[in-house]
Design goal:
The chain is of the alpha+beta class. It has a single domain, classed as Orthogonal Bundle (Arc Repressor Mutant, subunit A), CATH 1.10.10. It has 3 helices and 2 strands. The termini are close together. 18% of the residues are buried.
């Protein structure tokens, strides 16, 4: 199954176009992952965890995991979970 073929069991509500949540969702739907650093540089979003929380409340299956970017430095990485 490709990322474009993802189906979601929950009724997902779309965020308003032009919002940070909308931009994050479009980015994640393309199969890419986001960290705070990527979100800041690529999307201009500083509050990634808050926007991902909004998307979760809208029904989107946003997954987060901790990844090590440098020895001893771990950050959250967000992705869209396949159903």
């Amino acid at each position: 199954m490709t990322q474009a073929e993802l189906t979601f069991e929950l009724p997902c509500r779309m965020p308003d176009q032009g919002t940070q949540a909308y931009e994050i969702l479009a980015y994640l739907k393309s199969g890419r992952t986001l960290t705070v650093a990527k979100a800041m540089t690529e999307l201009g979003v500083y509050a990634l965890s808050q926007r991902c929380g909004e998307l979760r409340r809208m029904g989107w299956p946003i997954k987060s995991r901790m990844v090590e970017i440098h020895p001893g430095t771990r950050v959250a990485e967000y992705s869209l979970e396949a159903a």
